Write the structure tokens for this entry.
Amino acid sequence: MQLFSTILKINESVNRKMFMDLIKEWNDTQMFAENRISDLFAQGETGVMYGDEHLWLIAREYEKENIIAIRYEKSEDDGTVWDTDYVMNFNTMSLSIRLERSYHEQALRTDAKFSTPYFIRLLIEKGYLKDDGVFKVDDQPLFIDASNVSLLADVMSGKNLFFLPVVYISRTYYDEDPVDLHKISRQLKGIAHVLAEKSVFANTAVREACEDRNAYYGAIDIIFPNPDLKPIRYQYHAEKGEDPILREKTVRKVMEYSGAKLLSSLETYNGVVHAILLESLDAQSALVHQKENERQKAVNEMEDVYSTFGNDLEKLRKQVEELSAQSQMREYENQMLREKIRQSEKMPVIVAGEEDEFFPGEIREIVLDALDEKLSALAPESRRAHVIKDLIEHNDYRRISKENAQQIKTLLKDYKTLSAVSRQQLTDLGFVITEEGKHYRLCYHGDPRYKTTISKSGSDFREGRNIAALIIRQFM
């Protein structure tokens, strides 16, 4: 599965040696020793595989097009295989980077953490990257205030041309960052520009300049280079402080966009290898024809043999071209299929709405809860019962909400006061707890739509049970 791809413009001052030196520096300075290949490029620079079957790197050089293609592959113990490709075209001074994750048959993991490669950070630090229009490709946010708000306004109006998506992060009502700006900037380095409102006090000037089309009070906008794609806005739902779900959604959407890009054949490692093979076949075919002409003068009887040999090579060359074309088409078809799978994984059978999940799989659990309750009221052998039972059985129904509801009942059954243990347990269930005079305020996952209060010292034995019933009925 392609996780993301990006194309970065490189400064003309970067030559082949600088690029290869940077590849070696990237390998030698990786954070974890198990990701480094010892003695990289000790045997030569291109055409040699370094490492072993679990961790290896190979660089292939396509001299005709002035391209160096590098593949770095790591196989993990659980069967996950990570492929990172770097294809540097010195004619166009562009670098395509592609990260792909696949599995062996024995693979156990179905989801893994990933981020843009450390190599992009080195490109930024060395100053090797060209600007993307008016934006510098960076791993730090660009702060927006009244002095430079025209940058954002031009993005909103479509006046600024850019190749990478623009992520605009507004300040919350309480003048806080809704997400960790430096963390999200590092995660999106090389695949998006991160613009952040410097202060909520600039909100009026920003909204006026953008004709009120920009995100505000903690919301985040994602503006895509393709004008056919409408901007996406994610709202801020926490009462105060960072909203980690908001950051995860934003990163995931940008990753999905970058992962859907279809690269040309010479922008991928496999495409460059196919081109090198075709060039080699053409050279062999030309050599055969040359020898054939020379020998025809002396040995006419060998004409049919060499002609057949030449035809065989031509057939082989055409077969390679056809296979290469088929490979590109299948890659495109697979990408379309991956997009369908992504959509189906998010919400099978029905389409997801705009509500955010408070925890992974929450919306699916709520839907399955409703189906499970409905099932008990249906005739066992009816069509509806069969369909609903089938959906429940094939959607990993974990009954998380029911388990959480039972914990709430147990916690608040004989409520007298909120102990440190009880407070921690409520926090683990997603409640933000604050104090207001003689009461505690409980806000479910920081969403102000789901809040209630409970006295600090309960005098009525029914109070805890009533609060538990309200939470279960309205929050879960």
User: Anything to note?
Assistant: Residues 105-112, 343-347 have pLDDT under 50 and may be disordered.
